[in-house]
Amino acid sequence: MGSDYDVIVVGFGAAGAAAAIEAADRGARVLVLDRGYGGGATALSGGIIYAGGGTQEQRDGGYPDTVENLRAYLKQEVGDAVGDETLDRFCAQSPHLIEWLKDQGVEFRGGKVSSYKTSYPTDDFYLYYSGNEKAHPYVEYAAPAPRGHRVLARGMKSGKVLFERLSASAKAKGVTVVPLARVHELIKDDGRVVGVRYRVLDRTHPHATRHAALTRATAKLGTWMPQMVKGAAAEVERVWATGAVDAEAHAPSVILAAGGFIYNRDWVTSHAPQFEKISPLGTAGDDGAGIALGLAAGGKTNKMGNVAAWRFLAPPSAFLEGLTVGADGRRIANEDLYGATHSNVLMRQFGGTGWAIYDAATWRKIKSQIVTQTQLFQRLQLIYLFTTGHRRSATLDGLARKNGIDPAGLRRTVDEYNDGLARGTGDPARKDRDLCAPMRTGPFYSIDISAASSMFYPVPGLTLGGLVVDEGTGEVAHRDGGTVAGLYAAGRTAVGICSNSYVSGLSLSDCIFSGRRAGAHAAGGR
């Protein structure tokens, strides 16, 4: 069977683009098939790249970091998601990863870092502490360093700009990109993957322009409030189905980089039932199609029960000065943990039900920080929290009863916290001392941080598990041993660096790392 291309890439987000660029740089003829218009979850993201070990941006700001220090921190996040050799390689390559992105036209800026903890920085800062670097217990293992490298762009355009630069680089290197193409079958010859069968929207279809307009209009809103664009999404699907035609392409290597499976609710229920109530974060393409293709070819999966759920408390940073509790009044965890880390405890140990509790002084402090610490999209959510999204009572017992929290349990948690501060021993949960203040003066306030609290205050999330791969090459591991010849996986279609624990920027970094790994090996000796 003849080959039309040397490498076929299924999916055109960060992982797919990195794979295509790397393969093209090695002389391969590359075809990319994407079910959308390119970008995937990458284009909708905050455009954060987690990198350290002494990047130029870290040095520009005077923030010392070493590869060894980066590894010591990441080992706590990564655990057994990948082997030690892979983590060593990822960390050693980390400073170069930023330089490689610059070679593709992506811009970064170092310098000053915000003095406050945030889930996403304002446009004054493009380097920040994007994970658990300063929080217990992680700070016990490595010296804190800012490693969240935000792509240079205004507002929430960093992810969009990141993908635009990667896409332009790939196309400039001769990569052929076909949008609106859904791969439904891998072609095999004598056990080896040699191509794909797919359906693609005929661009001459009378409603092709409408399809593009609806997709653009609903993409970002659908990430945060999918229920609000349900009708438009159904129309997009209908147009594609009526105008799609059959096609196939052949190549000795196929790379699956089609995202995760958070939009496949049946899979979420089956693999991660604790996370059923969260909102999907990504695109409709994150339906597990790439993983399913790998399984059909003989692959196997791992870490499918791991999900990153995002209940960020900050900004403003004073939100972290409150106490988070479950229905029994017990403390959930130290509030200065990264949002997804804190949420993992909330989801797995408290059934996804919890509240953040504040006294009057902290509530006033939160409001005073809004202008200087938040972006527009964050302020829209704050409007809800400061109007109908909170409850108030003159006493802690009254607040507990209003929320259905055990009053005695809440009082015990607050007393233990206040006593620790008064004695000088600090917070029993070991929150950063700079974020601790006694909780004494009413009125008291609560915010429901539960997974299903409100459509205006959702808990979005993404899946972290996927196909098991050979960590040296990116080839899909066969369930009976060895690998599936000719088949690779990268990004959230595969198990990777962030498959146990997610912090901002780590998934995109892994997408670039694993995409380049697969692209290099798939291109062979060219």
TrEMBL record:
Residues 6-496 form the FAD-dependent oxidoreductase 2 FAD-binding domain. GO terms for molecular function: steroid dehydrogenase activity, acting on the CH-CH group of donors. GO terms for biological process: steroid metabolic process. Gene3D superfamilies: FAD/NAD(P)-binding domain, Succinate dehydrogenase/fumarate reductase flavoprotein, catalytic domain. It comes from the Bacteria. The keyword NADP does not apply. Its cofactor is FAD. Keywords: FAD, Flavoprotein, Oxidoreductase. This is FAD-dependent oxidoreductase 2 FAD-binding domain-containing protein. It comes from Mycolicibacterium parafortuitum.
